[in-house]
Specification:
The complex is a heterodimer. Chain A is of the alpha+beta class. Chain A folds into 5 domains: about 160 residues, MutS, DNA mismatch repair protein, domain I (3-Layer(aba) Sandwich); about 55 residues, DNA polymerase, domain 1, CATH 1.10.150; about 90 residues, DNA polymerase, Y-family, little finger domain (Dna Ligase, domain 1, 2-Layer Sandwich), CATH 3.30.1490; about 55 residues, no CATH class; about 100 residues, no CATH class. Chain A contains 18 helices and 21 strands. A 7-stranded antiparallel β-sheet of chain A has the order 15-21-20-19-18-17-16, with no helix packed on it. A 5-stranded mixed β-sheet of chain A has the order 5-6-1-7-8. A 4-stranded antiparallel β-sheet of chain A has the order 9-12-10-11, with helices on one face. In chain A, a hairpin with a 2-residue loop joins strand 2 and strand 3. The longest helix of chain A has 21 residues. Chain B is α/β, with parallel strands linked by helices. Chain B has one domain: Rossmann fold (3-Layer(aba) Sandwich), CATH 3.40.50. Chain B is built from 6 helices and 10 strands. Chain B has an 8-stranded mixed β-sheet, with helices on both faces. Chain B has a two-stranded antiparallel ribbon with strand order 1-2. About 5% of the residues of chain B have low confidence. The chains are: A alpha+beta, B alpha/beta. Strand 13 of chain A pairs antiparallel with strand 5 of chain B, so a sheet runs across the interface.
């Protein structure tokens, strides 16, 4: 297994030595080595991290960007090892038996990979190669290797993996095996501190206490694998192949074809009550060059996931000639532990329909044109919520993200909020009764009372006004500092039919220019 | 003598059987504005005037809380904080930015109708009547509700009533009469009075309401 620590921070950092943190929902999810020296930790609040390190670069969490950047690493490793599996950006897993025999042992093989990566983008970051018998053990081994200065690969002897793993604390489960930290803390409170303690308890007892999770825990603690990595070719029956009579150059045409294949492919399994969890995607070009990649998703690969994977693979493959053949090979199939729609709560039929529609819209318009809302907090109306691309949408996950409480920001506007908020505010002139432009002093005092608004050379009388609500942000940083004041203004308008109408606006003054920030529509 | 009526005719004619109207729940304040005391599935509601955006949000809020998904198509200026204050469930709100051309726009809206119960839509000027008809037919067969927002702001031109490509079932025309809570440098905007004119195909007589919006 190859593991690059804090991959998103490596990608996001401008230079390899600058401190950088990737933030998701106000919490640090990943930080660079330089930031780590300042004491920035994963899980820390953004404000706290900035307090420790004022020069910290903050980047938003973008899984797409990480995955794209990781493609270069994947390509480098792929030159040495033929069949690799990328489960998440930053982690590559492969079966070592074949490659190790070719290179004369685990150690020469691992060293070869480290050598190859020293010249690539990850050279300055922490990365490590670990070899062990199970996924979990290899994960830990790679982590140990990554923290080593010399980047020497960490190899656990084949027969000793279980003994080595047994000594580890149960905390590794939450760190490396997607077990929730609550479960791990419960295990600790039950007096099960090492994996050995867990594996000593009989599986049926754990299953009785934790259900399916208990079986999983026991399996992990034993050091067994749920889906052993394949080093041999899969049986031929789960194969979907298409040869193009006319070589395909256009990527969109190719993806459309793959989508049809993927739908047939997943339909085939759905009808048999099965689900494909690991897939080999093979592309062959006119000149005979080919790209082959393993895709693994423990919850099963849907048609949409397959198309998405194909897209990533094609993008990462720098080919010149058009494609002549596409193959989808199911490498690992398991029975579908069917998902019953819940009667109360959870994901309902409506949510399923909506998420299918989101998927279709993303295909139709591209991922940037379909957006979901995420709260992020801020004083300005535009900062308050962030629109995020819906391409990685899963109904349940989204619900959790949105229902977290939204504390009120100090200095934000009083409610009600305006219903029309401009992203590019139209300019306006706010003048006093002598037609002088209104100014604001350093202490946020208005030079006079606003009397008129001039919009597109039309004058509107100000009936009433309130404010100002100032924003002074990041005054310590000249590049990002903002200074503006906002006023609530009620103006009078005459409608074409002669009736009178009032309209409430939010006008803002920034850099000496007034603009309509929002309308109370 | 018993009158024999073929079964197919009974199903077709609302004369023989009262049509069942499926409604989406709405809050008490807007219920009085709507002719069938709720948002009837398969219909189009058009909100115009200066309070169009908040009107549209308050129509959707209750249904959104009860689990319906809301697609916001082409209304890029919608204030999200305002939606939250009206009670729209953010986790079931999706923003879609459709292409401008008539055909692509209607394809996109049709796809949104397929998946979502509620739509808030801004209609582009280029939309042809034929495409609008298609969208309306799809809306009726999928039993969703489309709320059209015509924001008559300072720069944008809005449709006149006759030229609008969609035949709205209910048209809510709003005019803000006064704002209170704000007084020359003191206070802040708190309460307003809006005059709402209700018209449209499903409304027998044009009605005028004066609504006080408390926040």
């Amino acid at each position: 297994m190859l593991r690059c620590l804090d991959w998103s921070a490596v990608v996001a950092a401008k230079t390899s030595n600058s401190p950088c943190a990737v933030v998701y929902g106000q919490r640090v999810v990943s930080r660079s080595v330089a930031a780590m020296h300042y004491g920035v930790q994963v899980g820390m609040r953004r404000r706290h991290a900035q307090g420790l390190c004022p020069d910290l670069e903050i980047a938003a969490y973008q899984p797409d960007r990480d995955r794209r950047a990781f493609n270069t690493v994947v390509r480098t490793v792929n030159e040495i090892v033929p069949l690799i599996e990328v489960s998440e950006p930053g982690v590559i897993v492969f079966a070592t038996r074949g490659p190790s025999r070719y290179f004369g042992g685990d150690e020469p093989m691992a060293n070869k990979i480290v050598q190859a990566l020293r010249t690539s983008i990850v050279a300055d970051s922490q990365f490590g190669v670990g070899v062990a018998d199970s996924r979990l053990a290899a994960h830990i081994a790679a982590h140990i290797s990554a923290q080593d200065k010399t980047k020497a690969p960490f190899i656990v002897e084949p027969e000793k993996t279980k003994v080595w793993l047994a000594q580890k604390s149960v905390r590794v489960l939450s760190e490396f095996a997607n077990i929730s930290s609550e479960t791990v803390s419960l295990l600790e409170r039950l007096g099960l501190n090492t994996l050995q303690d867990v594996s000593k308890i009989s599986e049926s007892v754990l299953a009785g206490r934790f259900g399916e999770l208990g079986v999983e825990l026991h399996r992990l603690a034993r050091g067994d694998e749920q889906h052993p990595l394949a080093a041999v070719a899969p049986p031929p029956e789960h194969l979907c192949s298409r040869a193009f009579e006319e070589p395909v150059i256009d990527q969109q045409t190719l993806l459309n074809n793959i989508q049809i294949m993927a739908e047939e492919f997943s339909d085939y399994f759905v009808k048999r009550g099965a689900i494909c969890v690991r897939l080999i995607l093979k592309f062959e070009s006119e000149t005979g060059a080919h790209s082959e990649r393993l895709w693994y998703r423990p919850q099963g690969l849907t048609a949409r996931a397959i198309t998405e994977s194909a897209k990533w693979q094609i993008e990462s493959w720098s080919r010149k000639s058009p494609l002549v053949r596409v193959q989808l090979i199911a490498d690992e199939v398991r029975t579908d532990t069917a998902r019953q729609l819940k009667l109360w709560g959870g994901v309902t039929q409506v949510d399923e329909t909506a998420s299918r529609a989101i998927g279709r819209l993303t295909e139709l318009l591209g991922s940037t044109a379909v957006q979901l809302v995420k709260w992020q907090g801020g004083r300005d109306l535009q900062d308050n919520f962030q629109l995020v691309s819906a391409s990685h949408f899963q109904p349940r996950q989204n619900e959790l993200a949105a229902t977290t409480e939204k504390p009120k920001w100090r200095g934000s506007l009083p409610t009600p909020s305006p219903s029309v908020v401009y992203s590019e505010p139209p300019l306006v002139q706010v003048v006093d009764k002598d037609k002088n432009l209104l100014r604001v002093s350093a202490r946020h005092e208005l030079s006079a009372e606003p009397a008129q608004l001039i919009i597109n050379q039309q004058n509107y009388k100000v009936i009433s006004w309130a404010g100002p609500w100032p924003i002074e942000e990041k005054w310590w940083d000249s590049a990002r500092s903002r200074r503006l004041v906002r006023l609530q203004v009620v103006i009078e308008k005459l409608l074409p039919d002669g009736s009178q109408q009032v309209q409430a606006l939010l006008v803002a003054l920034e850099h000496g220019e007034w603009s309509i920030a929002a309308i109370y529509g | 003598m018993k009158l024999l009526v073929p079964k197919t005719l009974v199903a077709k004619h609302s004369l023989f059987e009262k049509q069942v109207l499926e409604n989406f729940a709405v809050s008490d304040q807007v219920r009085q504005l709507l002719p069938d005391s709720g948002l009837v599935r398969g219909r189009i509601v058009r909100c115009c005037g200066d309070a169009a955006a908040s009107l549209a949000l308050s129509l959707c809020a209750r249904a959104s809380q009860q689990g319906s998904w809301l697609g916001v198509v082409g209304v890029s200026h919608l204030g999200i904080s305002c939606a939250v204050e009206h009670g729209v469930a953010l986790e079931r709100m999706v923003f879609v930015h459709p292409p401008e051309s008539s055909r692509d726009w209607s394809t996109t809206v049709a796809a949104v109708i397929d998946g979502f119960d509620l739509l808030i839509v801004a209609v582009p000027e280029s939309l042809s009547v034929t495409d609008a008809r298609r969208v309306q037919a799809r809306l009726q067969s999928r039993r969703s509700v489309m709320i059209i927002v015509d924001t008559a702001t300072f720069s944008e031109t809005s449709f006149s009533n006759s030229a609008h490509p969609f035949h709205a079932d209910v048209v809510l025309d709003s005019t803000t009469k006064s704002w209170s809570g704000i007084n020359n440098g003191a206070g802040y905007l708190q309460q307003r009075q809006v005059a709402i004119k209700v018209s449209g195909r499903r409304v027998a007589r044009t009605q005028e309401h004066l609504v006080t919006c408390n926040y």
